[in-house]
Amino acid sequence: MITLRKCLATLAFLGGASLVHADTSHVEFLNAGTLPPDLPFSEAVRVGDTYYLSGQIGIEPGTRNLASGGLDGQARQTMANIQRILEGNGLGLKNLVKCTVMLDDMDDWPAFNKIYMEILKPPYPARSAFGADDLALEAKVEVECIAAKR
């Protein structure tokens, strides 16, 4: 029988100790001013050297106006918003370790993927994607990321 203690010991042995004993003593809620001020969430939250970015859609900074150009314009603006938040915290796109992509229409996957690969360079962060109806402000795409200071 495998016990929780054995699982934790195995994780620690395999280098997963940081998962078991994550340093949560310093949590910082970050806002660089790219979001409209009345939204009820932080742009990012830093826990130790890990940054959790709120999901970003293709709105022009400080507004609720979606970028023009359909999926292409919104996807580029979404990635620019992510880059702006990272840079505002002394990071860059190379610090991304995980992205979650939500598409209003999964038929847009190839077009989004092309833009994503233009903006991000190998090695790419881990990624998940799924279809999601009714994204905020009728956006075509939303991307949520995790970054790590290296």
Characteristic key phrases:
alpha+beta; 60s Ribosomal Protein L30, Chain: A; seven-stranded mixed β-sheet; 4 helices; 24% strand; globular
What can you see in these coordinates?
By secondary structure, the chain is α+β, with helices and mostly antiparallel strands. The chain has a single domain, classed as RutC-like (60s Ribosomal Protein L30, Chain: A, 2-Layer Sandwich), CATH 3.30.1330. Helix content is 29%, strand content 24%. Strands 1, 2, 3, 4, 5, 6 and 7 form a 7-stranded mixed sheet that branches. Strand 5 (96-103), helix 4 (109-119) and strand 6 (126-131) form a beta-alpha-beta unit. Helix 3 (70-88) runs parallel beside helix 4.
